[in-house]
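Deliverable D5.2: sample structural annotation.
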Amino acid sequence: MGLPVRKSKVLPPPTCPLTESLALLRGAWAPNVIWCLSAEPRRFGELRHDIPRISARVLSARLRELESRGLVCRHLLATSPPSAEYALTELGRELLPAIKALAQVGRTLIAEWNSRASLERKARVVG
């Protein structure tokens, strides 16, 4: 039997702003959903169309999570059958520059990979 664990007398360290910001984007497809809502509010079916590889179950879960984090708001439409529209909140809009920067890095990486693949194909043909 070991010694008992004593309680700490110091306050926990302050939370890291970067960790908190990244936690807002956790979950598969969360950045994609935010990206698709960046231009205008979208209905569920429109988001499914915008992100073809996402399942309805995952999209529904992601929208609920983003809404609970205060990034997305859900507005009920007076239609028959009832429908809802999703839009970014001000907090959600604050994430757009970071998501756009990540997308630019992705474009650069894809261009580099394509360039390398092209050079490798040429080297195989010549060699």
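Annotation notes: Helices lie at 17-24, 30-36, 44-50, 56-68, 90-94, 96-126. The chain has six helices and three strands.
The annotation will be released with the project's public dataset once the embargo ends.
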